[in-house]
Design brief:
Blueprint lengths: L11 H4 L2 H8 L2 E6 L1 H4 L10 H4 L6 E6 L5 H6 L9 E5 L2 H6 L9 H18 L4 E5 L15 H21 L3 E3 L2 H8 L18 H12 L1
Parallel strand pairs: 1-2, 1-3, 3-4, 4-5
Helix pairs in contact: 7-8, 9-10
Length: about 220
Protein backbone atom coordinates (compact mmCIF):
# COMPACT_ATOMS: atom_id res chain seq x y z
CA UNK A 1 0.00 0.00 0.00
CA UNK A 2 1.15 3.52 -0.76
CA UNK A 3 2.17 5.51 2.29
CA UNK A 4 1.29 9.22 2.66
CA UNK A 5 3.73 11.61 1.04
CA UNK A 6 5.45 13.54 3.82
CA UNK A 7 8.65 14.59 2.07
CA UNK A 8 7.87 18.29 1.66
CA UNK A 9 10.20 20.50 3.70
CA UNK A 10 8.38 23.65 4.82
CA UNK A 11 10.50 26.75 4.34
CA UNK A 12 9.91 30.05 6.12
CA UNK A 13 8.41 31.50 2.93
CA UNK A 14 5.95 28.59 2.72
CA UNK A 15 5.02 28.83 6.40
CA UNK A 16 4.34 32.55 6.02
CA UNK A 17 2.33 32.09 2.85
CA UNK A 18 -1.43 32.39 2.39
CA UNK A 19 -2.40 28.71 2.43
CA UNK A 20 -0.16 27.49 5.26
CA UNK A 21 -1.22 30.42 7.44
CA UNK A 22 -4.91 29.76 6.74
CA UNK A 23 -4.67 26.05 7.52
CA UNK A 24 -2.78 26.80 10.73
CA UNK A 25 -5.62 29.03 11.89
CA UNK A 26 -8.42 26.57 11.03
CA UNK A 27 -9.52 23.50 12.94
CA UNK A 28 -11.06 21.91 9.85
CA UNK A 29 -10.22 22.17 6.16
CA UNK A 30 -12.12 20.89 3.14
CA UNK A 31 -10.29 20.61 -0.18
CA UNK A 32 -12.56 20.79 -3.22
CA UNK A 33 -11.62 20.01 -6.79
CA UNK A 34 -11.23 17.64 -9.67
CA UNK A 35 -8.84 14.77 -10.45
CA UNK A 36 -5.79 16.56 -9.02
CA UNK A 37 -7.56 16.89 -5.70
CA UNK A 38 -8.93 13.35 -5.87
CA UNK A 39 -5.63 11.80 -6.93
CA UNK A 40 -7.42 10.02 -9.75
CA UNK A 41 -4.39 8.85 -11.73
CA UNK A 42 -1.69 8.41 -9.07
CA UNK A 43 -3.14 5.98 -6.57
CA UNK A 44 -5.26 8.44 -4.63
CA UNK A 45 -2.59 11.01 -3.79
CA UNK A 46 -4.10 14.52 -3.85
CA UNK A 47 -1.98 17.49 -4.81
CA UNK A 48 -2.12 18.77 -1.20
CA UNK A 49 -1.04 15.54 0.55
CA UNK A 50 2.52 16.76 1.25
CA UNK A 51 0.98 19.80 2.95
CA UNK A 52 -1.66 17.88 4.89
CA UNK A 53 1.00 15.58 6.34
CA UNK A 54 2.18 18.58 8.40
CA UNK A 55 -1.29 19.06 9.91
CA UNK A 56 -2.17 15.75 11.52
CA UNK A 57 -4.03 17.66 14.25
CA UNK A 58 -6.55 19.10 11.79
CA UNK A 59 -9.80 17.67 10.46
CA UNK A 60 -9.09 17.30 6.75
CA UNK A 61 -11.94 16.63 4.32
CA UNK A 62 -11.83 16.03 0.59
CA UNK A 63 -14.71 16.53 -1.81
CA UNK A 64 -13.51 15.97 -5.34
CA UNK A 65 -14.22 14.03 -8.50
CA UNK A 66 -12.02 13.33 -11.48
CA UNK A 67 -13.13 15.13 -14.61
CA UNK A 68 -15.54 17.45 -12.84
CA UNK A 69 -16.18 21.11 -13.57
CA UNK A 70 -17.35 23.82 -11.21
CA UNK A 71 -20.97 22.91 -11.95
CA UNK A 72 -20.47 19.52 -10.29
CA UNK A 73 -19.45 21.18 -7.03
CA UNK A 74 -22.46 23.48 -7.15
CA UNK A 75 -24.86 20.64 -7.96
CA UNK A 76 -23.50 18.60 -5.04
CA UNK A 77 -22.96 21.43 -2.56
CA UNK A 78 -25.38 19.87 -0.09
CA UNK A 79 -23.02 16.90 0.26
CA UNK A 80 -19.89 18.97 0.94
CA UNK A 81 -18.77 18.77 4.60
CA UNK A 82 -18.93 21.81 6.84
CA UNK A 83 -15.48 23.29 7.48
CA UNK A 84 -13.76 26.40 8.77
CA UNK A 85 -11.63 26.68 5.61
CA UNK A 86 -12.48 25.71 2.04
CA UNK A 87 -9.64 25.38 -0.47
CA UNK A 88 -11.20 25.25 -3.93
CA UNK A 89 -9.10 24.20 -6.93
CA UNK A 90 -11.46 23.97 -9.88
CA UNK A 91 -11.85 25.26 -13.42
CA UNK A 92 -9.21 23.53 -15.50
CA UNK A 93 -11.81 21.16 -16.97
CA UNK A 94 -14.15 24.07 -17.69
CA UNK A 95 -11.31 25.51 -19.77
CA UNK A 96 -10.22 22.24 -21.38
CA UNK A 97 -13.45 20.44 -22.22
CA UNK A 98 -15.53 23.24 -23.79
CA UNK A 99 -18.75 21.33 -23.20
CA UNK A 100 -21.69 23.73 -22.92
CA UNK A 101 -23.67 21.21 -20.88
CA UNK A 102 -21.18 21.03 -18.00
CA UNK A 103 -18.59 23.80 -18.43
CA UNK A 104 -18.48 27.47 -17.66
CA UNK A 105 -17.92 28.71 -21.20
CA UNK A 106 -16.62 32.18 -20.34
CA UNK A 107 -14.58 33.77 -17.57
CA UNK A 108 -17.61 35.79 -16.48
CA UNK A 109 -19.74 32.64 -16.27
CA UNK A 110 -16.99 30.91 -14.29
CA UNK A 111 -16.81 33.72 -11.75
CA UNK A 112 -20.58 33.76 -11.36
CA UNK A 113 -20.53 30.04 -10.62
CA UNK A 114 -17.63 30.51 -8.18
CA UNK A 115 -19.74 33.06 -6.32
CA UNK A 116 -22.71 30.69 -6.29
CA UNK A 117 -20.55 27.91 -4.89
CA UNK A 118 -19.16 30.18 -2.17
CA UNK A 119 -22.66 31.30 -1.19
CA UNK A 120 -23.90 27.71 -1.00
CA UNK A 121 -21.02 26.74 1.27
CA UNK A 122 -21.38 29.88 3.40
CA UNK A 123 -24.99 28.95 4.09
CA UNK A 124 -23.74 25.79 5.82
CA UNK A 125 -20.57 27.29 7.35
CA UNK A 126 -21.29 31.02 7.85
CA UNK A 127 -17.90 31.84 9.36
CA UNK A 128 -15.82 29.83 6.90
CA UNK A 129 -12.80 31.25 5.12
CA UNK A 130 -12.20 30.56 1.43
CA UNK A 131 -9.18 30.22 -0.80
CA UNK A 132 -9.68 29.77 -4.54
CA UNK A 133 -6.82 28.30 -6.55
CA UNK A 134 -6.56 29.32 -10.21
CA UNK A 135 -7.48 26.62 -12.74
CA UNK A 136 -4.52 24.28 -13.05
CA UNK A 137 -1.99 24.72 -15.86
CA UNK A 138 -1.63 21.78 -18.25
CA UNK A 139 1.13 21.08 -20.72
CA UNK A 140 0.93 20.50 -24.49
CA UNK A 141 -0.35 17.19 -25.85
CA UNK A 142 -3.67 17.27 -23.99
CA UNK A 143 -5.94 14.84 -25.89
CA UNK A 144 -9.15 15.93 -24.14
CA UNK A 145 -9.41 19.48 -25.41
CA UNK A 146 -10.41 20.85 -28.83
CA UNK A 147 -8.18 23.87 -28.18
CA UNK A 148 -4.59 24.34 -29.28
CA UNK A 149 -2.02 24.67 -26.52
CA UNK A 150 -1.84 28.45 -26.99
CA UNK A 151 -5.64 28.79 -26.97
CA UNK A 152 -5.96 26.62 -23.88
CA UNK A 153 -3.25 28.55 -22.04
CA UNK A 154 -4.75 31.92 -22.97
CA UNK A 155 -8.24 30.87 -21.84
CA UNK A 156 -6.85 29.46 -18.60
CA UNK A 157 -5.15 32.78 -17.92
CA UNK A 158 -8.39 34.62 -18.71
CA UNK A 159 -10.35 32.48 -16.22
CA UNK A 160 -7.60 32.93 -13.63
CA UNK A 161 -7.50 36.71 -13.99
CA UNK A 162 -11.28 36.96 -13.65
CA UNK A 163 -11.23 34.76 -10.55
CA UNK A 164 -8.44 36.85 -9.03
CA UNK A 165 -10.44 40.04 -9.60
CA UNK A 166 -13.52 38.47 -8.02
CA UNK A 167 -11.56 37.32 -4.98
CA UNK A 168 -9.88 40.69 -4.58
CA UNK A 169 -13.23 42.51 -4.71
CA UNK A 170 -14.75 40.21 -2.11
CA UNK A 171 -11.73 39.85 0.23
CA UNK A 172 -11.40 36.14 -0.56
CA UNK A 173 -8.07 34.33 -0.66
CA UNK A 174 -6.68 33.63 -4.14
CA UNK A 175 -3.63 31.63 -5.21
CA UNK A 176 -2.25 31.24 -8.72
CA UNK A 177 0.28 28.42 -8.76
CA UNK A 178 0.54 28.37 -12.55
CA UNK A 179 3.55 30.68 -13.07
CA UNK A 180 5.59 28.43 -10.74
CA UNK A 181 4.32 25.25 -12.40
CA UNK A 182 4.78 26.45 -15.96
CA UNK A 183 8.32 27.66 -15.24
CA UNK A 184 9.36 24.25 -13.90
CA UNK A 185 7.46 22.18 -16.46
CA UNK A 186 8.77 24.24 -19.38
CA UNK A 187 12.42 23.73 -18.38
CA UNK A 188 12.51 20.19 -16.96
CA UNK A 189 11.37 16.76 -18.13
CA UNK A 190 7.62 16.39 -17.64
CA UNK A 191 8.05 12.72 -16.77
CA UNK A 192 9.79 13.62 -13.51
CA UNK A 193 6.58 15.23 -12.24
CA UNK A 194 3.62 14.25 -14.44
CA UNK A 195 1.89 11.04 -15.42
CA UNK A 196 0.42 12.69 -18.51
CA UNK A 197 -0.49 16.23 -19.61
CA UNK A 198 -1.72 17.39 -16.18
CA UNK A 199 -1.75 14.79 -13.39
CA UNK A 200 1.16 14.87 -10.90
CA UNK A 201 2.72 11.60 -9.77
CA UNK A 202 2.66 10.69 -6.08
CA UNK A 203 6.34 11.60 -5.58
CA UNK A 204 8.00 14.66 -7.08
CA UNK A 205 4.74 15.65 -8.78
CA UNK A 206 2.58 16.36 -5.73
CA UNK A 207 5.57 17.91 -3.98
CA UNK A 208 5.94 20.31 -6.92
CA UNK A 209 2.25 21.21 -6.86
CA UNK A 210 2.28 21.73 -3.10
CA UNK A 211 5.36 23.93 -3.36
CA UNK A 212 3.76 25.95 -6.16
CA UNK A 213 0.63 26.64 -4.10
CA UNK A 214 2.51 27.43 -0.89
CA UNK A 215 4.93 29.82 -2.60
CA UNK A 216 2.44 31.61 -4.85
Amino acid sequence: MRVPNDELVISDDMANGKLYTAITAAESVCFLGDSLTEGTKNGGCPWYEPIASHFSDKEIYDFSKGGCTISYLIDNADSIPAAQLYVIAIGTNDVRYRNETTCAMSAQDFVQRADELKNRLSAVSPNAEFIFIAPWYSVDGDPYTPLSFSQKTALNEEFSSALEAYCSSNEIGFINANPYLSKVLSTEMHSRYLLDHIHPNCGDGVILYSEAVLLA
